[in-house]
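Supplementary Methods, section 5.1.

A reviewer requested that the exact input to the structure prediction be made available. We therefore reproduce it here, unchanged from the version used in the analyses.
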Amino acid sequence: MTKPRWRVGVDDIPDAGFALEVDSRDATLLALLGEVAEGRAGALAGCVSLQVEPWPKRVDIRGTLTGKVPLVCARCLEGYVEDVERTFNQILARNLAADDEEIELRHRDLDRSQLVGDTLDLQEIVREELMLSLPSKPLCRADCKGICPGCGAELNEAECTCAPVVDDRWSALAALKGRLGDK
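The structure derived from this sequence is encoded token-by-token as follows.
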């Protein structure tokens, strides 16, 4: 098995482009998954498939990313495994503008990035896409009830034991309701 080329010189990309396909046996991909999991225990698994195509003024990168990443639920703080699946396209323009030149971006330019330097770092692209594939608020399930802030009960498994909180500002209304109920 040949070692995948995560870093490649832009001028070294063959005219026909090249493909990069790796799975969890690759140390670099495993490190990226571990970085995203922020050291949480759990089975890290994933695979990446990239197609890199050079053009005179840009480099196109198409890819798919799948994996399993251990996360912590934002509501109940229990660990769970998030299934990640993402298809992406990145266009890296060789020269959008000189450093001091202003350019006007059109709508079609919004999916492009500047190719900085003469080396293409596919590891950074995969890291970015992996981060974008994760939920901004991880939830173990959509109907997770979370933890009671008063008694600390995990509301998915137990009832809250807190006494109902009565707001004194409503006491006049409660007294009025009591008087009307007597009649």
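The CA atoms of residues 36 and 131 lie 7 Å apart. These observations are discussed further in the main text.
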